Amino acid sequence: MAEFLRYIDSPTFEYAQQPWGDLIYGTREEIQSIGIGVGMAFPGEPGGKMHRVNVVDPRGFPAEIENAQFWKGRGIYAVCIRFPGREREQAPSTQFAPGVKRRDWGCHDEYVGTADALVSAGIVNAGHFPGMPGMRKVKVTVLPDGSLPQGAPSANCSEAKKPGTKYVERASRTTYRVCVRVSEEEDRRRSDESSRAEREWEARMRALPRPAPLVDLPEVIEPSAGAPKAPGYRAEGNVIFLHNKNGRRDTATNLAGDKATSEGTAAPSDVIVLATRRQNHEQ
Q1: Is the domain of 66 the same as that of 110?
Q2: Over the stretch 246-269, which tens digit does the pLDDT of each residue have?
């Protein structure tokens, strides 16, 4: 999924405009400075929830604060704000058999139901469920011929990558999920279809009006051909360099993967602008 724009204020603060909404990274103080989670305990803090906290942003949109230290660093939080009407369509589930739902899911066909329902539908044999006698605890792999892989759980089994292989795991306290690998041809067809659907969805999201951001953002380069360039515009490969009012060099990356134009031409479309929020705000 392509980001629309990402604004970087400091080594810890990022404001990304995603097709589905806003994604913000920052310290507790930086996030509270834009009106999110003010006066509240953040995830992992005394009095706060362990993993995530649900709040409302200053625009009235539901927001979820999550501890992002494992992928962004200690003391950094992620704020996910999803805008209404921008949900991505998911593959629908169909009734495959009594008590069993089926869905096409990438390189697998997914079946969900109770153990009895899955066995009655002929999807998996009785006893081939995680935690049952002789079975592994978390996930059971059943090869296309109905046998089980031999050797240690971490052993690489080439047969387990063939079409018809089944992976059985828990979906809930009372149900199981069985994923059946499809052929490479079907996998490619689904991948192409998914990519096409994602491009169409992103185009629809780009055409929708977007709520005003929670921070002051620099003027975005006009993507159309012949558009005026921002001051100090220069392109090298797929990186665009700008200069803000303070003479600081900022960077913009062409997310679409198009070859950036040379100096003196219009900026390409679909760019990330790396800007200085506080400096621009103080001008």
Answers
A1: no
A2: 333 344 433 333 333 333 333 333
Q: Are residues 103 and 23 in the same domain?
A: no
Half-sphere exposure in the Cβ direction for 248 (13 Å, CA): 12
Residue 195 domain-assigned (yes or no): no
Q: Which residues of the chain have pLDDT under 50?
A: 220-228, 231-232, 236-283
Domain end call among 17, 51, 82: 82
Q: Is 203 inside a domain boundary?
A: no
Beta-ladder partners of 108: 105, 181
Number of separate domains in the chain: 3
Q: Distance between CA 29 and CA 193 in Å, rounded?
A: 43
Q: Do the Cβ atoms of 177 and 169 come closer than 8 Å?
A: yes
What pLDDT does residue 150 have? 79
Which of helix, strand or coil describes residue 212? Answer: coil
At residue 9, the pLDDT reads 67
Please, is 124 exposed, middle or buried when counting C-beta atoms within 10 Å of its C-beta (0-12, 13-18, 19+)? buried
Q: Which two tokens stand for residue 250?
A: 């900022």
Segment 192-251, tens digit of pLDDT: 999 999 999 999 998 999 999 998 876 544 334 444 455 445 554 444 444 443 333 344
Same domain, 64 and 100: no
Flag whether 51 is in a domain. yes
In degrees and rounded to multiples of 5, residue 237 shows phi and psi of 65, -125
Per-residue exposure over 5-37, b if at least 16 CB sit within 10 Å of its own CB, e if not: bbbbbeebbbbbbbbbbbbbbbbbebbbebebb
Full domain range(s) for residue 50? 5-82
Phi/psi class of residue 47: alpha, beta or left (left: φ > 0; alpha: ψ in -120 to 50)?
Answer: left
Q: Which of 149, 164, 185 is the last residue of a domain?
A: 185
Tokens in use for 126? Answer: 């009785």
Start-to-end CA distance of the chain, whole Å, equals 34
